[in-house]
Design brief:
alpha/beta; Enolase-like, domain 1; three-stranded antiparallel sheet
Amino acid sequence: MLLDRRAWLRLAAAGLLTPRPLFGQGAARPAPLKITDVTITPIALPDPPLLASSGCHGPYFLRNLVQLRTEAGIVGIGETRGGQGTTAALERAAASLKGQNVFAYRSFFKPIYTDHVGAWAGIELACLDAAGKATNRRLCELLGGPVRDEPEFAAYLFYRYAADQPKLLADSRLADPRGKGDRALDQWGEVRTPEAMVKLADEWRKRWGFSVFKLKGGVLPPDAELETLKRMNAHFGGKHLLRIDPNARWKKETALTIGKKLKDVHLEYYEDPVAGQQAMSEVRTETGLPMSTNMCVTRFEHVPEAVRLKPVDVVLADSHYWGGITGCLELGRICETFGWKVSQHSNNHAGVTMAAMVHIAATVPQLTVASDTHYPWLIEGADVIQGPNLKIQGGKLKIPAGPGVGVQLDPDKVARAHEVYRKCGMKERDDATTMRLIEPGWKRELY
Protein backbone atom coordinates (compact mmCIF):
# COMPACT_ATOMS: atom_id res chain seq x y z
CA MET A 1 0.00 0.00 0.00
CA LEU A 2 1.34 3.46 -0.90
CA LEU A 3 1.44 6.07 1.85
CA ASP A 4 0.91 9.78 1.29
CA ARG A 5 3.56 12.16 2.61
CA ARG A 6 1.72 13.07 5.84
CA ALA A 7 1.02 9.44 6.76
CA TRP A 8 4.62 8.51 6.12
CA LEU A 9 5.86 11.35 8.37
CA ARG A 10 3.49 10.33 11.20
CA LEU A 11 4.71 6.72 11.12
CA ALA A 12 8.33 7.79 10.95
CA ALA A 13 7.88 10.16 13.93
CA ALA A 14 6.39 7.32 15.93
CA GLY A 15 9.42 5.16 15.15
CA LEU A 16 7.38 2.73 13.12
CA LEU A 17 9.33 3.32 9.91
CA THR A 18 13.08 3.29 9.44
CA PRO A 19 14.07 5.09 6.26
CA ARG A 20 16.40 2.98 4.15
CA PRO A 21 19.75 4.82 3.83
CA LEU A 22 21.21 5.39 0.43
CA PHE A 23 24.61 3.90 -0.38
CA GLY A 24 27.19 6.27 1.03
CA GLN A 25 24.82 7.52 3.74
CA GLY A 26 25.18 4.74 6.26
CA ALA A 27 24.41 1.76 4.07
CA ALA A 28 26.55 -1.30 4.59
CA ARG A 29 29.45 -1.42 2.16
CA PRO A 30 30.99 -4.65 0.92
CA ALA A 31 33.78 -5.69 3.27
CA PRO A 32 37.23 -5.52 1.69
CA LEU A 33 38.51 -8.85 0.49
CA LYS A 34 42.22 -8.48 1.10
CA ILE A 35 44.83 -10.69 -0.53
CA THR A 36 47.05 -12.49 1.96
CA ASP A 37 49.00 -14.87 -0.26
CA VAL A 38 49.75 -15.41 -3.96
CA THR A 39 50.73 -18.71 -5.58
CA ILE A 40 52.06 -18.85 -9.15
CA THR A 41 52.24 -22.33 -10.67
CA PRO A 42 53.73 -22.94 -14.13
CA ILE A 43 52.27 -26.08 -15.71
CA ALA A 44 52.76 -28.23 -18.82
CA LEU A 45 49.81 -30.06 -20.39
CA PRO A 46 49.95 -32.63 -23.22
CA ASP A 47 49.80 -31.20 -26.72
CA PRO A 48 49.36 -33.23 -29.92
CA PRO A 49 51.68 -32.55 -32.89
CA LEU A 50 49.61 -29.80 -34.50
CA LEU A 51 51.15 -28.01 -37.49
CA ALA A 52 51.24 -24.26 -38.01
CA SER A 53 53.35 -21.74 -39.87
CA SER A 54 55.67 -21.75 -36.84
CA GLY A 55 56.36 -25.49 -37.13
CA CYS A 56 54.93 -28.30 -34.99
CA HIS A 57 53.55 -28.06 -31.47
CA GLY A 58 55.85 -29.62 -28.90
CA PRO A 59 54.84 -32.48 -26.60
CA TYR A 60 53.42 -29.98 -24.08
CA PHE A 61 51.89 -26.54 -24.02
CA LEU A 62 52.70 -24.21 -21.15
CA ARG A 63 50.38 -22.18 -18.92
CA ASN A 64 50.62 -20.28 -15.65
CA LEU A 65 48.05 -20.64 -12.88
CA VAL A 66 47.36 -17.90 -10.36
CA GLN A 67 45.83 -18.47 -6.91
CA LEU A 68 45.01 -15.48 -4.70
CA ARG A 69 44.23 -16.37 -1.09
CA THR A 70 42.26 -13.84 0.93
CA GLU A 71 41.79 -13.13 4.62
CA ALA A 72 38.24 -14.51 4.34
CA GLY A 73 39.62 -17.89 3.25
CA ILE A 74 38.35 -17.44 -0.31
CA VAL A 75 40.78 -18.41 -3.08
CA GLY A 76 40.47 -16.79 -6.50
CA ILE A 77 41.96 -18.62 -9.47
CA GLY A 78 43.28 -17.43 -12.81
CA GLU A 79 45.10 -18.84 -15.82
CA THR A 80 47.25 -17.07 -18.36
CA ARG A 81 49.89 -17.59 -21.02
CA GLY A 82 52.76 -19.96 -20.38
CA GLY A 83 56.49 -19.51 -20.47
CA GLN A 84 59.12 -18.36 -18.01
CA GLY A 85 58.75 -14.72 -19.10
CA THR A 86 55.14 -14.68 -17.93
CA THR A 87 56.03 -16.63 -14.80
CA ALA A 88 58.68 -14.05 -13.90
CA ALA A 89 56.24 -11.16 -14.46
CA LEU A 90 53.66 -12.83 -12.25
CA GLU A 91 56.24 -13.35 -9.53
CA ARG A 92 57.26 -9.67 -9.75
CA ALA A 93 53.63 -8.68 -9.31
CA ALA A 94 52.96 -11.08 -6.45
CA ALA A 95 54.72 -9.05 -3.77
CA SER A 96 52.67 -5.95 -4.60
CA LEU A 97 49.37 -7.83 -4.35
CA LYS A 98 49.44 -8.66 -0.65
CA GLY A 99 47.02 -6.42 1.25
CA GLN A 100 45.19 -5.38 -1.92
CA ASN A 101 41.40 -5.59 -2.10
CA VAL A 102 40.21 -7.88 -4.91
CA PHE A 103 37.06 -5.76 -5.28
CA ALA A 104 39.31 -2.82 -6.18
CA TYR A 105 41.45 -4.64 -8.74
CA ARG A 106 41.46 -1.67 -11.12
CA SER A 107 43.37 0.33 -8.51
CA PHE A 108 46.50 -1.79 -9.00
CA PHE A 109 46.04 -2.41 -12.71
CA LYS A 110 48.52 -0.01 -14.31
CA PRO A 111 51.99 -1.17 -13.13
CA ILE A 112 51.25 -4.87 -13.68
CA TYR A 113 49.65 -4.28 -17.09
CA THR A 114 52.54 -2.08 -18.16
CA ASP A 115 55.06 -4.71 -17.10
CA HIS A 116 53.31 -7.67 -18.75
CA VAL A 117 49.79 -7.71 -20.14
CA GLY A 118 49.52 -11.50 -19.85
CA ALA A 119 50.43 -11.39 -16.18
CA TRP A 120 47.72 -8.82 -15.58
CA ALA A 121 45.14 -11.02 -17.36
CA GLY A 122 45.79 -13.92 -14.99
CA ILE A 123 45.67 -11.69 -11.90
CA GLU A 124 42.50 -9.87 -12.95
CA LEU A 125 40.74 -13.19 -13.57
CA ALA A 126 41.74 -14.44 -10.11
CA CYS A 127 40.41 -11.22 -8.55
CA LEU A 128 37.10 -11.54 -10.37
CA ASP A 129 36.86 -15.19 -9.38
CA ALA A 130 37.38 -14.33 -5.71
CA ALA A 131 34.87 -11.47 -5.91
CA GLY A 132 32.33 -13.80 -7.48
CA LYS A 133 32.82 -16.42 -4.79
CA ALA A 134 32.50 -13.78 -2.05
CA THR A 135 29.19 -12.49 -3.45
CA ASN A 136 27.92 -15.81 -4.82
CA ARG A 137 27.74 -14.31 -8.30
CA ARG A 138 28.96 -15.66 -11.62
CA LEU A 139 31.75 -13.73 -13.27
CA CYS A 140 29.44 -12.60 -16.09
CA GLU A 141 27.02 -11.19 -13.49
CA LEU A 142 29.79 -9.10 -11.94
CA LEU A 143 30.27 -7.53 -15.38
CA GLY A 144 26.64 -6.61 -15.94
CA GLY A 145 25.05 -9.94 -16.77
CA PRO A 146 25.10 -12.18 -19.83
CA VAL A 147 23.63 -11.10 -23.16
CA ARG A 148 23.73 -14.72 -24.38
CA ASP A 149 23.62 -17.95 -22.34
CA GLU A 150 25.31 -20.41 -24.72
CA PRO A 151 28.09 -18.76 -26.74
CA GLU A 152 29.12 -20.46 -29.98
CA PHE A 153 32.60 -21.78 -30.69
CA ALA A 154 34.30 -22.78 -33.92
CA ALA A 155 36.11 -26.02 -34.68
CA TYR A 156 39.81 -25.20 -34.80
CA LEU A 157 41.28 -27.64 -37.31
CA PHE A 158 45.01 -28.24 -37.73
CA TYR A 159 47.02 -30.31 -40.14
CA ARG A 160 49.06 -32.62 -37.95
CA TYR A 161 51.21 -35.69 -37.53
CA ALA A 162 49.93 -38.80 -35.81
CA ALA A 163 50.42 -38.72 -32.04
CA ASP A 164 52.60 -41.83 -32.20
CA GLN A 165 54.89 -40.59 -34.97
CA PRO A 166 58.18 -42.40 -34.12
CA LYS A 167 60.47 -39.37 -34.22
CA LEU A 168 58.13 -37.48 -31.92
CA LEU A 169 58.00 -40.36 -29.44
CA ALA A 170 61.79 -40.14 -29.27
CA ASP A 171 61.62 -36.52 -28.10
CA SER A 172 63.80 -36.23 -24.98
CA ARG A 173 61.33 -33.76 -23.44
CA LEU A 174 58.60 -36.36 -23.02
CA ALA A 175 57.75 -36.83 -19.34
CA ASP A 176 54.71 -39.09 -19.52
CA PRO A 177 54.13 -42.72 -20.61
CA ARG A 178 52.51 -42.05 -24.00
CA GLY A 179 53.45 -44.48 -26.74
CA LYS A 180 52.19 -46.25 -29.87
CA GLY A 181 48.75 -47.51 -30.80
CA ASP A 182 46.33 -47.52 -27.88
CA ARG A 183 48.93 -45.73 -25.77
CA ALA A 184 49.12 -42.79 -28.17
CA LEU A 185 48.13 -39.39 -26.83
CA ASP A 186 45.08 -39.36 -29.11
CA GLN A 187 43.63 -41.32 -32.00
CA TRP A 188 42.98 -38.58 -34.56
CA GLY A 189 45.90 -39.83 -36.68
CA GLU A 190 47.86 -37.97 -39.32
CA VAL A 191 46.06 -35.18 -41.18
CA ARG A 192 48.21 -33.83 -43.98
CA THR A 193 45.99 -33.97 -47.05
CA PRO A 194 42.72 -32.28 -48.07
CA GLU A 195 40.89 -35.62 -47.84
CA ALA A 196 42.12 -36.28 -44.30
CA MET A 197 41.11 -32.78 -43.18
CA VAL A 198 37.59 -33.19 -44.54
CA LYS A 199 37.30 -36.44 -42.59
CA LEU A 200 38.52 -34.74 -39.42
CA ALA A 201 36.09 -31.84 -39.86
CA ASP A 202 33.19 -34.23 -40.29
CA GLU A 203 34.19 -36.19 -37.17
CA TRP A 204 34.35 -32.98 -35.14
CA ARG A 205 30.96 -31.91 -36.46
CA LYS A 206 29.45 -35.20 -35.36
CA ARG A 207 31.17 -35.25 -31.97
CA TRP A 208 30.80 -31.62 -30.88
CA GLY A 209 28.18 -30.21 -33.22
CA PHE A 210 30.32 -27.44 -34.71
CA SER A 211 28.85 -25.43 -37.56
CA VAL A 212 31.82 -23.07 -38.05
CA PHE A 213 35.21 -24.48 -39.11
CA LYS A 214 38.56 -22.71 -38.99
CA LEU A 215 41.51 -24.16 -40.88
CA LYS A 216 44.98 -23.36 -39.57
CA GLY A 217 46.86 -22.70 -42.78
CA GLY A 218 50.41 -21.76 -43.67
CA VAL A 219 51.42 -25.44 -43.55
CA LEU A 220 50.80 -27.16 -46.90
CA PRO A 221 51.37 -25.45 -50.24
CA PRO A 222 48.66 -22.77 -50.63
CA ASP A 223 46.91 -24.59 -53.50
CA ALA A 224 46.50 -27.66 -51.26
CA GLU A 225 44.96 -25.56 -48.52
CA LEU A 226 42.61 -23.96 -51.03
CA GLU A 227 41.64 -27.44 -52.18
CA THR A 228 41.00 -28.40 -48.56
CA LEU A 229 38.53 -25.53 -48.12
CA LYS A 230 36.79 -26.36 -51.40
CA ARG A 231 36.37 -30.00 -50.41
CA MET A 232 35.10 -29.05 -46.96
CA ASN A 233 32.63 -26.67 -48.52
CA ALA A 234 31.40 -29.33 -50.93
CA HIS A 235 31.18 -31.95 -48.19
CA PHE A 236 29.03 -29.68 -46.04
CA GLY A 237 26.95 -28.55 -48.99
CA GLY A 238 27.92 -24.92 -48.43
CA LYS A 239 25.90 -24.89 -45.20
CA HIS A 240 28.73 -24.25 -42.74
CA LEU A 241 30.93 -21.20 -42.41
CA LEU A 242 34.65 -21.65 -43.12
CA ARG A 243 37.72 -19.66 -42.11
CA ILE A 244 41.41 -19.93 -42.93
CA ASP A 245 44.38 -18.54 -41.00
CA PRO A 246 47.82 -18.88 -42.67
CA ASN A 247 49.46 -16.84 -39.87
CA ALA A 248 51.04 -14.42 -42.37
CA ARG A 249 53.10 -17.12 -44.06
CA TRP A 250 51.93 -16.09 -47.54
CA LYS A 251 53.38 -13.43 -49.79
CA LYS A 252 50.91 -10.79 -50.89
CA GLU A 253 50.78 -12.19 -54.41
CA THR A 254 49.89 -15.63 -53.04
CA ALA A 255 47.24 -14.19 -50.73
CA LEU A 256 45.65 -12.34 -53.65
CA THR A 257 45.67 -15.39 -55.93
CA ILE A 258 44.16 -17.68 -53.29
CA GLY A 259 41.81 -15.00 -51.99
CA LYS A 260 40.17 -14.44 -55.36
CA LYS A 261 39.47 -18.18 -55.57
CA LEU A 262 37.97 -18.29 -52.08
CA LYS A 263 34.82 -16.61 -53.33
CA ASP A 264 33.64 -20.07 -54.36
CA VAL A 265 33.44 -21.26 -50.74
CA HIS A 266 31.23 -20.19 -47.83
CA LEU A 267 34.00 -18.08 -46.29
CA GLU A 268 33.30 -16.19 -43.08
CA TYR A 269 36.66 -14.44 -43.02
CA TYR A 270 40.25 -14.51 -44.27
CA GLU A 271 42.59 -14.28 -41.26
CA ASP A 272 46.12 -12.89 -41.45
CA PRO A 273 47.18 -14.30 -44.83
CA VAL A 274 49.94 -11.66 -44.92
CA ALA A 275 51.96 -9.68 -42.37
CA GLY A 276 51.25 -6.09 -41.40
CA GLN A 277 48.33 -3.72 -41.65
CA GLN A 278 49.38 -2.23 -44.98
CA ALA A 279 49.55 -5.59 -46.78
CA MET A 280 46.34 -6.76 -45.06
CA SER A 281 44.57 -3.62 -46.26
CA GLU A 282 45.72 -4.20 -49.82
CA VAL A 283 44.53 -7.82 -49.81
CA ARG A 284 41.19 -6.75 -48.32
CA THR A 285 40.71 -4.08 -50.99
CA GLU A 286 41.76 -6.22 -53.95
CA THR A 287 39.86 -9.40 -52.98
CA GLY A 288 36.80 -7.83 -51.37
CA LEU A 289 36.94 -10.54 -48.69
CA PRO A 290 36.17 -9.91 -45.01
CA MET A 291 39.48 -9.94 -43.13
CA SER A 292 40.31 -10.91 -39.58
CA THR A 293 43.42 -10.60 -37.47
CA ASN A 294 45.21 -11.66 -34.36
CA MET A 295 48.54 -10.38 -35.61
CA CYS A 296 48.28 -6.79 -36.83
CA VAL A 297 45.65 -5.43 -34.40
CA THR A 298 46.37 -6.94 -30.98
CA ARG A 299 46.82 -3.86 -28.79
CA PHE A 300 44.82 -0.69 -28.29
CA GLU A 301 47.73 1.29 -29.68
CA HIS A 302 47.28 -0.54 -33.00
CA VAL A 303 43.74 0.80 -33.42
CA PRO A 304 44.50 4.31 -34.82
CA GLU A 305 46.51 2.88 -37.73
CA ALA A 306 43.82 0.27 -38.34
CA VAL A 307 41.20 3.00 -38.57
CA ARG A 308 43.34 4.74 -41.17
CA LEU A 309 44.39 1.71 -43.25
CA LYS A 310 41.22 -0.42 -42.89
CA PRO A 311 42.96 -3.85 -42.84
CA VAL A 312 40.24 -5.82 -41.03
CA ASP A 313 36.54 -6.48 -40.57
CA VAL A 314 36.79 -8.81 -37.57
CA VAL A 315 39.05 -8.28 -34.54
CA LEU A 316 39.85 -11.22 -32.28
CA ALA A 317 39.59 -10.45 -28.59
CA ASP A 318 41.87 -12.26 -26.16
CA SER A 319 42.03 -11.40 -22.48
CA HIS A 320 45.72 -12.35 -22.43
CA TYR A 321 46.57 -9.82 -25.14
CA TRP A 322 44.00 -7.03 -24.73
CA GLY A 323 44.36 -6.44 -21.00
CA GLY A 324 42.11 -8.89 -19.25
CA ILE A 325 38.37 -9.35 -19.38
CA THR A 326 37.71 -5.65 -18.85
CA GLY A 327 40.02 -4.99 -21.79
CA CYS A 328 37.83 -7.20 -23.96
CA LEU A 329 34.75 -5.24 -22.87
CA GLU A 330 36.49 -2.01 -23.87
CA LEU A 331 37.52 -3.55 -27.19
CA GLY A 332 33.89 -4.41 -27.94
CA ARG A 333 32.82 -0.78 -27.70
CA ILE A 334 35.72 0.38 -29.85
CA CYS A 335 34.96 -2.22 -32.52
CA GLU A 336 31.31 -1.19 -32.54
CA THR A 337 32.38 2.41 -33.11
CA PHE A 338 34.37 1.51 -36.22
CA GLY A 339 32.05 -1.13 -37.60
CA TRP A 340 34.27 -4.12 -36.82
CA LYS A 341 32.87 -7.45 -35.67
CA VAL A 342 34.36 -9.25 -32.67
CA SER A 343 35.35 -12.87 -32.07
CA GLN A 344 37.89 -14.50 -29.72
CA HIS A 345 41.39 -15.73 -30.42
CA SER A 346 42.65 -18.95 -28.87
CA ASN A 347 45.95 -20.43 -27.87
CA ASN A 348 46.32 -23.80 -26.16
CA HIS A 349 44.62 -23.45 -22.81
CA ALA A 350 43.16 -25.31 -19.85
CA GLY A 351 39.68 -25.18 -18.37
CA VAL A 352 40.06 -21.99 -16.34
CA THR A 353 40.69 -19.99 -19.50
CA MET A 354 37.99 -21.97 -21.31
CA ALA A 355 35.47 -20.98 -18.65
CA ALA A 356 36.67 -17.37 -18.79
CA MET A 357 36.24 -17.35 -22.59
CA VAL A 358 32.64 -18.46 -22.16
CA HIS A 359 32.01 -15.61 -19.71
CA ILE A 360 33.62 -13.13 -22.12
CA ALA A 361 31.58 -14.37 -25.07
CA ALA A 362 28.45 -14.22 -22.93
CA THR A 363 29.12 -10.69 -21.68
CA VAL A 364 30.56 -8.67 -24.58
CA PRO A 365 27.50 -7.63 -26.64
CA GLN A 366 29.53 -7.06 -29.79
CA LEU A 367 31.08 -10.56 -29.71
CA THR A 368 28.70 -12.07 -32.25
CA VAL A 369 31.18 -14.18 -34.24
CA ALA A 370 31.86 -17.73 -33.01
CA SER A 371 35.02 -17.87 -30.87
CA ASP A 372 38.07 -20.01 -31.58
CA THR A 373 39.18 -22.60 -29.04
CA HIS A 374 41.92 -25.22 -28.82
CA TYR A 375 40.09 -26.94 -25.98
CA PRO A 376 38.95 -30.06 -27.92
CA TRP A 377 42.62 -30.91 -28.51
CA LEU A 378 43.13 -31.30 -24.73
CA ILE A 379 42.54 -34.98 -24.04
CA GLU A 380 39.94 -35.96 -21.46
CA GLY A 381 41.38 -36.04 -17.95
CA ALA A 382 44.41 -33.89 -18.76
CA ASP A 383 42.80 -30.64 -17.62
CA VAL A 384 43.61 -29.16 -14.19
CA ILE A 385 40.01 -28.46 -13.16
CA GLN A 386 37.91 -30.65 -10.91
CA GLY A 387 35.75 -33.19 -12.71
CA PRO A 388 35.69 -33.91 -16.43
CA ASN A 389 36.65 -31.48 -19.19
CA LEU A 390 34.06 -28.84 -19.98
CA LYS A 391 31.53 -30.07 -22.55
CA ILE A 392 30.92 -28.54 -25.96
CA GLN A 393 27.51 -29.50 -27.32
CA GLY A 394 25.96 -28.24 -30.52
CA GLY A 395 29.08 -26.16 -31.05
CA LYS A 396 28.26 -24.18 -27.90
CA LEU A 397 29.25 -23.99 -24.25
CA LYS A 398 26.93 -23.06 -21.41
CA ILE A 399 28.05 -20.49 -18.89
CA PRO A 400 29.47 -22.36 -15.87
CA ALA A 401 26.88 -22.34 -13.10
CA GLY A 402 29.18 -21.80 -10.11
CA PRO A 403 30.23 -18.44 -8.64
CA GLY A 404 33.18 -16.58 -10.07
CA VAL A 405 34.69 -18.23 -13.12
CA GLY A 406 32.66 -21.34 -12.26
CA VAL A 407 35.36 -24.01 -12.13
CA GLN A 408 37.71 -25.21 -9.40
CA LEU A 409 41.30 -26.40 -9.58
CA ASP A 410 42.03 -30.03 -8.74
CA PRO A 411 45.13 -29.97 -6.49
CA ASP A 412 46.31 -33.41 -7.65
CA LYS A 413 45.98 -32.51 -11.33
CA VAL A 414 47.77 -29.20 -10.76
CA ALA A 415 50.61 -30.98 -8.95
CA ARG A 416 50.92 -33.49 -11.80
CA ALA A 417 50.98 -30.74 -14.44
CA HIS A 418 53.61 -28.79 -12.50
CA GLU A 419 55.75 -31.91 -12.13
CA VAL A 420 55.57 -32.46 -15.90
CA TYR A 421 56.61 -28.83 -16.39
CA ARG A 422 59.60 -29.39 -14.14
CA LYS A 423 60.65 -32.64 -15.82
CA CYS A 424 60.11 -31.76 -19.49
CA GLY A 425 62.46 -28.77 -19.36
CA MET A 426 60.31 -26.65 -21.71
CA LYS A 427 60.40 -22.98 -20.67
CA GLU A 428 58.94 -21.28 -23.75
CA ARG A 429 56.98 -22.39 -26.79
CA ASP A 430 59.29 -23.48 -29.63
CA ASP A 431 57.47 -25.11 -32.55
CA ALA A 432 60.51 -24.99 -34.81
CA THR A 433 62.50 -27.35 -32.57
CA THR A 434 59.78 -30.00 -32.72
CA MET A 435 59.41 -29.60 -36.48
CA ARG A 436 63.12 -30.20 -36.97
CA LEU A 437 62.86 -33.56 -35.23
CA ILE A 438 60.90 -34.68 -38.30
CA GLU A 439 62.29 -32.34 -40.95
CA PRO A 440 65.89 -31.39 -40.07
CA GLY A 441 66.78 -27.93 -41.29
CA TRP A 442 63.14 -26.79 -41.48
CA LYS A 443 62.71 -23.01 -41.74
CA ARG A 444 59.68 -20.79 -41.82
CA GLU A 445 59.83 -19.55 -45.38
CA LEU A 446 57.05 -17.66 -47.12
CA TYR A 447 54.91 -19.26 -49.81
